[in-house]
Amino acid sequence: MNRVSFLIFGYGVPKNILEEPNYDRYLHTIFNTIYTETYASTQTSLIVFCGGKTDCMPPYTRTEAGEMIRLFKTYCARPAVRSVTKKWSLVPEATSLSTLENFVYGKEVLERRTVTGGNIVVFCEATRKKRVERTGKRVLGKKYTLRVIPVDFDSSPNRYLDPTFLENKEQKVWKEEMKALQSNDALRAHHRKQQEKLAYLRAQGSKRHAAAVKTWWENILKERSV
Question: Which CATH number fits domain 4-223: 3.40.50, 2.60.40, 3.30.310, 3.40.20?
Answer without folding.
Answer: 3.40.50
